[in-house]
Amino acid sequence: MSVKSLAESIIGGPLSDWHDMSGGCIHRVQSASLNTRARVVIKSGASSAASLFEEEAYSLEMIAGTATLPVPRVLGFSHDDDNAVLVLEYLPPARANPDTWSRFADLLAEFHLHEINSNTDEIYGFSRDNHLGSTLQVNTFCDDWVEFNALYRLGFQVRLNRDRGRLSRSDARLLEKLINRLDTLIPRNPRPSLLHGDLWSGNAHCTANAENTAEIALLDPACYIGDAIADIAMMQLFGGFPESVYEIHAELLPDAAALYRERIDVYQLYHLLNHLFIFGSGYHHRVMSLARKYTG
After folding, report:
1. Which residues are paired to 132 by β-bridges?
2. How confident is the model at residue 237 (pLDDT cuts 50, 70, 90)?
3. Do 148 and 221 share a domain, yes or no?
4. How many distinct structural domains can be found in the chain?
5. Are 27 and 135 members of one domain?
6. Which domain holds residue 105?
7. Which of 10-19, 217-226, 239-248, 249-258 has the lowest mean pLDDT?
8. What is the rounded average pLDDT for all residues in the chain?
9. Is 81 in the same domain as 148?
10. Are residues 39 and 179 in the same domain?
11. What is the CATH number of the domain that holds 62?
12. Phi and psi (nearest 5°) for 182?
C-alpha cells in the first residue's frame, strides 16, 4: 500500500492537502487534512521503520500517562511490506513568551517528579529498547545508575564508535578510564524519573492549546528511566532554552545541586558520542576534551 493508503486506513477516511513539514531528519514528515478540516501529522518510511514508529508511539503514550507535559496524541501506526506510517495529532505552532517558558519549567519538574511504579529494585532503564536518532539505545534494567551508564550509555557508545573507526585505541582507553570513575561523577541511586531522552530544542514545540494559550509540547522522545539531570544536560548541550527554565527546574528538583556539573558533563558525553557515531569527526574534539577533563 502507498503511504497515503496506509494513513487513510489508520484514520478511517480520506486525507487531502498534503504538505511536507520540517523535522524529518530520519523519516519523512507531512501534514494532511481530514474532511473535517482538522489536520494530522504523518511520519513515513520504509517498512523497516515500523519498529521505530512503534517505539515512538510507546514513548509518547508513556509521557502522556504522566498528565504533565503535553505531547501529540498517537492516532495509530501501520506498515506493510513496503511502507511504515505513524499518524499523530497536529499541534499548530505558536509563539512562546516568558510565561510559556516558566510554565514549561514547572511542568518539566512535575514530569521528572512523577512517581515511578516498580515491583523490582531494577528501576533504571526501560521496558523496551529504542533509538536515539538512528542509533540503538539499549535500556536493559539495572538497580545501579552508575552500572547502567557504564554498560548501556557510555560503554555501549565507545564500542560503537571504536568499531566504526571514530575513536582510536588510545581514545577508547581514555574514555574507559573515565567510565571506571563514574561512581565519583554521578550518583549511584538518583531519584528515578521518566526521561524524554532526547530533549534538544527541536523536540520542544510551542503550540496553542484549547484555550489558545501558548505551551511547550514534547516531540520525538526516546524515553527511559534515570536521573532527571540527563534531560537537562541534553537541553543545555545545544542551547535554545531560556536560562530561567534551568533555574526554576533546579529549585523544584530536590537533588539537583549535588555533582551538578559532573552529571551534566557525563550525560552530555553520551549524546556527543552518539553524534560522533552518526555524524563523524566534527564531534571528536568535544568528546575527547570531556574525557581529558575527568581523567587528567
Report:
1. 135
2. very high
3. yes
4. 2
5. no
6. 98-293
7. 249-258
8. 94
9. no
10. no
11. 3.30.200.20
12. -55, -30
Which amino acid does the sequence have at 288?
M
DSSP 8-state assignment for residue 1:
-
- 72, 89, 106: which is the final residue of a domain? 89
Output DSSP code: residue 150. Answer: I
- Cα–Cα distance measured from residue 241 to residue 77, given in angstroms and rounded to the nearest whole number: 31
Task: Identify the band that residue 27 occupies on the pLDDT scale cut at 50, 70 and 90.
Answer: confident
- Which parts of 135-244 are beta strand (E)? 135-137, 193-195, 204-208, 214-218, 224-226
Residue 254: pLDDT band (50, 70, 90) is confident
Res 292: pLDDT: 97
* Residue where a domain terminates, one of 62, 89, 116: 89
Same domain? 9 vs 116: no
Question: Which triple of cell numbers denotes residue 101?
Answer: 517558558
Place of cell 511547550: 216
Residues 6+ apart with CB under 8 A from 270: 149, 153, 154, 157, 230
Specify the amino acid at residue 168.
S
Residues 264 and 168 grouped into a single domain = yes
Single-letter residue type at 157: Q
pLDDT band at 24; cut points 50, 70, 90: low
DSSP state of 120: S
Residues 6+ apart with CB under 8 A from 119: none
In contact, 283 and 238? CB cutoff 8 Å: no
- SS3 percent helix, strand, coil of the chain, rounded to 5, is 45, 20, 35
Contacts of 223 (CB under 8 A, 6+ apart): 58, 59, 62, 63, 126, 130, 194, 195, 196, 197
Q: Find the CATH number of the domain harbouring 115.
A: 3.90.1200.10
Looking at per-residue pLDDT, the higher value among 83 and 122 belongs to 83
Q: Are residues 51 and 128 in the same domain?
A: no
Catalytic positions: 198
Distance CA 70, CA 188 (A): 30
pLDDT at 101: 98
276 CB contacts (<8 Å, ≥6 apart)? 161, 166, 167, 283, 284, 287
Question: Could you tell me if 17 and 80 lie in one domain?
Answer: yes
